[in-house]
Amino acid sequence: MTTDALPRTLHVDCDGIDIAAEVRGDGPPVLLLHGYPETRAMWSEVAARLAHDHTVIAADLRGYGDSAAPEGEVYAKRDMAADQLALMLSLGFDRFAVIGHDRGARVGHRLALDHPERVSSLAVLDIVPTLHMFENVDRTMASAYFHWFFLARPGGMPEKLITADPATWLRSRFAGRGAGDGDFIPAAYDEYERCFDPATIRASCADYRAAASIDLEHDRADRAAGRRVGAPVLALWGADGYVGTNFDVLGVWRDYADDLRGAPIAAGHYLAEEAPEATAEAVEAFLAEVAA
Predict the structure, then answer these.
(1) Domains of the chain, start order
(2) Where are the alpha helices (DSSP H) in the chain?
């Protein structure tokens, strides 16, 4: 099996949206989806380890990294999930595991709901479902996740304010969100800064506007119809982060998934970068369990 080979970078036309990805390793396929304001680079250490036994595909979401950032309000998680399904099918994988962090976990959740025959298992890192978040807003959540409400504002205001000083905004997304005191600046920060251009700023605001509107409509329709994730689900969360200290993570996810397990990781929000070894170990054990 391939363990040391450099990842192969590719671009795939996914129904008119160019999606960038890196592929490495050999074995059962695993799709890795990043969070905000990151790119596929967040998975560097975890991907290298998973590639010992898996074909690992780390993709940039629509609007992020080196993927296309189409204009308009076209960032429903349903559409972003469809991009990733098209990517995997183009690579010859018709059934695969999905590991997502932050926004990528929300895309993975939607992918597992919309295409249950394609998703063999799902790991969600440091989130509870979007619908639960919006239906349980309190002062603590509004303070810790103020960017959800700011970025979702219509009319271009957040885009204008962020583009006035993108470096300060980008750095603020990591400050205070790691475990311990002071700023957490990930190893891939320069890559995030490279990709945080006006197109990404515009697209990411549209992503958050979708989360506060059309995504909730889709989530409520699923709840009304009794649709839940049937694939095995692993929930991991940062023991020191907002999610881990403010939610009964497994208790929440039991309302959304049939086959659930999970555990905290000694980290803040950015599990895969703060604690890559522990995160990779937990994911590897999960993938081995569900494959047995």
Answers:
(1) 8-291 (3.40.50.1820)
(2) 44-50, 77-90, 103-114, 130-134, 139-144, 146-151, 157-164, 166-172, 189-195, 198-211, 214-225, 242-246, 249-253, 271-274, 276-291
